[in-house]
Specification:
Helix 1 (12-22) runs antiparallel to helix 3 (101-113) and helix 6 (214-237) packs parallel to helix 7 (280-293). Helix content is 25%, strand content 20%. The protein has a single domain (50-366), classed as Purple Acid Phosphatase, chain A, domain 2 (4-Layer Sandwich), CATH 3.60.21. It is built from 7 helices and 14 strands. The chain is α/β, with parallel strands linked by helices. It is globular, with a radius of gyration of 20 Å.
């Protein structure tokens, strides 16, 4: 197994600089962090030993969640010994708030508060939907370019500790001025388990909504399928015990999903609700790779704001794929304040049969309907 070095915690000066930037102020020189191996770090050793990670996303969606709920959630994650955390996209509500740089700097400040390496993958509310008038009418590709520059300029995670990642450097995606690398697509391996992020979005994966972009979708979809297949190839080569994939969009898995996901035929994976289908080819590739891999595969997404852990993926004969688990993280419930500003703790035991086990972490300070016990 390839062991990636971790960076030392980001300097107080850098964190202060970002915080001040949020306030429209400036700081003196920000000191860059350098990638070094930390001999005191526990993450890269004991390949077969169990460890925990934290999953969250679709947050914050309101000023209250940004000011209170997310800081509470981060403090709760920091109180646990996590190898890394992963935010699966959507840094704001879909409409009614600006997609300007303040949004991204706010997110960077949150990630800087996380002690463990902080993984991030973009969400449709961060870029695809930024062209909505209620979000400022930005150019979506320009906003994605900006996210790539701010969040994905180096082959490391965010957070106070940095985990080195593999990056999709092939020039396969589109930016405002033409083809660019899909640097937001990342891969890393921890103690015999392979992880990857993929830029898969809600809002029909950029094929519908205010300004659909078929050319952007086609390029990114092909890049995602390539990254997906390369990830499984890497996992096989490394003899990984499991794979976890992390993205934003809920692609829809069947014809009865009660939430906002697209409806599709579970056997053919063709969409059945008349909307543009930005996911079928990707899902067919996913199903093929899951079957061939045979070992546990977890697919983490957000988008439809409905916490669940289930097994919705069927083969072409209608049989449930026993080694596949869909994991949807907690998401926004802005109408109820911090009600769903929660996270998911995943225990990863590479030597166990199912590898992943899941525990909903209800942040005591974010309980709304029922107060935390005294």
């Amino acid at each position: 197994m390839t062991r990636y070095p971790l960076q030392r915690p980001a300097s107080r000066v850098m964190r202060l600089a970002r915080t001040l930037a949020l306030l429209g102020l400036t700081a003196c020189a920000a000191v860059p962090t350098l990638a070094t191996h930390d001999d005191e770090d526990p993450y890269g050793r004991d390949e077969g030993r169990a460890y925990a990670i934290g999953l969250w996303g679709d947050l914050p969606y309101s000023a209250e969640q940004a000011a209170v709920g997310v800081p509470n959630l981060i403090a709760d994650m920091n109180a646990n010994r996590l190898v890394f955390t992963a935010h699966n996209g959507d840094l704001k509500a879909g409409s009614g708030s600006l997609c300007d740089d303040n949004l991204y700097h706010q997110a960077l400040a949150f990630f800087d508060l996380l002690r463990a390496p902080a993984v991030f993958t973009p969400g449709d509310n961060d870029w695809t939907d930024c062209d909505r008038p209620a979000n400022g009418g930005f150019n979506s590709l320009e906003r994605l370019d900006r996210e790539r520059a701010l969040f994905f300029s180096a082959p490391y995670t965010l957070g106070q500790r940095k985990l080195r990642q593999e990056v999709q450097t092939a020039v396969l995606c589109l930016g405002l001025n033409g083809p660019v690398p899909c640097v937001e697509n990342r891969r890393w391996t921890v103690r015999g388990v392979t992880y990857a992020t993929l830029n898969v979005q809600g809002s029909c994966n950029n094929l519908c909504d205010t300004a659909p972009d078929a050319a952007e979708w086609a390029a990114r979809n092909a890049a995602n399928i390539r990254w997906l297949r390369e990830t499984f190839a890497a996992a096989k080569a490394r003899r990984s015990s499991a794979v976890m994939l992390i993205s934003q969009g809920n692609p829809g898995w069947d014809g009865t999903d009660p939430t906002r996901a697209p409806l599709r035929d579970a056997k053919t994976l063709a969409q059945t609700d008349g909307q543009p289908d930005g996911f079928k080819d990707y899902l067919l590739a996913l199903r093929e790779e899951v079957i061939a891999f045979r070992r546990p595969v977890a697919y983490v997404h957000g988008d439809s704001h409905y916490f669940r852990v289930d097994r919705p993926l069927l083969d072409a004969a209608g049989r449930r794929l026993e080694n596949f688990t869909r994991v949807e993280t907690f998401g926004n419930s802005a109408g109820n304040g911090n009600n769903d500003v929660q996270w998911l703790k995943v225990t990863v035991d590479p030597r166990s049969r199912e590898v992943f086990s899941y525990q909903a972490m209800i942040v005591p300070a974010n309980r709304v309907a029922v107060p935390a016990p005294q």
